Known about the structure:
Layout: E1 2-5, H1 7-14, H2 19-35, E2 37-41, H3 42-56, H4 60-71, E3 75-78, H5 82-95, H6 99-110, E4 115-117, E5 129-131
Parallel strand pairs: 1-2, 1-4, 2-3, 4-5
Helix pairs in contact: 1-3, 3-4, 5-6
Amino acid sequence: MRVFVDASLIIYLNVVLPEKDARRIEEFWLKLLVESELYTNVLVLDEAIYVSKKKYGVPVEDTLELIDKAILPYVTILPLGLEEYVRAEKYMVKYGLKPSDALHLATMDNNGIQLIATEDKDFDNTHVKRIWVT
């Protein structure tokens, strides 16, 4: 299955969590790695770097290292361009999504991806299926 990886998953892989939560996130990530083709875009990486630093105090260098070692070898980075912007405009209005979420949804649609691995419940009100840690 083809899955779009959102920033929340990368962030949780990057920050210190209680042991039980960390184990659940790691198990979810490993299951995705084994069972799925994974995709994301550079905006997700930007969000993961920014939120990790701003909200959790993770040094930028640490996040970059995680992305370089644990994300880029396994996740295809899809382009963002005018086609994604045009489609995202419609999703901001239709679903009330934040601009970045609308761009993620447009990226998914333009690449035939119907599943998103995210904690963000805003995607529950769209035409794609959200999957998350259970």
